[in-house]
Amino acid sequence: MSRIIFFVVLIGGAYYLYRRFVTDAQKLAAKSKASEKERQTGAMGTLVKDEVTGEYRVKREGE
Questions:
Q1: Overall domain count for the chain
Q2: Residue 14 belongs to a domain
Q3: Distance (Å, rounded) from C-alpha 26 to C-alpha 21?
Q4: pTM of the prediction?
Q5: Residue 29 belongs to some domain of the structure
Q6: Which residue of 2, 11, 46, 54 pairs with 59 in a disulfide if CB–CB is 3.0 to 4.6 A?
Q7: Residues 54, 24: Cα–Cα separation, whole Å
Q8: Of 43, 40, 46, which Cα lies nearest the Cα of 60?
Q9: How far is CA 3 from CA 12, 32, 33, 57, in A?
Q10: Distance CA 53, CA 13 (A)
């Protein structure tokens, strides 16, 4: 019985790490694609419209 619990925990941990790796890889690919697009267009940053004030600002790192 303890072997079954051990393998379930092991498989669950491996699945969690796999999903975390895939999520991080997708974020990195999106960031790379955005920076490549900025480089191609010669932009210094990406502007984002603030919905509350209606003003534009430079996109922050975590957005």
A1: 1
A2: yes
A3: 9
A4: 0.64
A5: yes
A6: 46
A7: 31
A8: 46
A9: 14, 43, 45, 55
A10: 44
* Residue recorded with tokens 């393998």: 7
CA distances from residue 22 to 16, 28, 58 in whole angstroms, order as listed? 10, 10, 28
Over its C-alpha atoms, the chain yields an Rg (Å, rounded) of 20
**63 in a structural domain:** no
- pLDDT of 15 reads 98
**What residues make up the domain containing 11?**
2-58
Tokens 């379930």 locate to 8
23 Cα distance to chain centroid: 6
Provide block-wise average pLDDT over 10 residues at a time, the chain (63 residues): 95 98 96 88 83 88 70
Question: What is the structure's pLDDT at 27?
Answer: 93
pLDDT of residue 44: 79
Classify residue 10: in a domain, yes or no.
Answer: yes
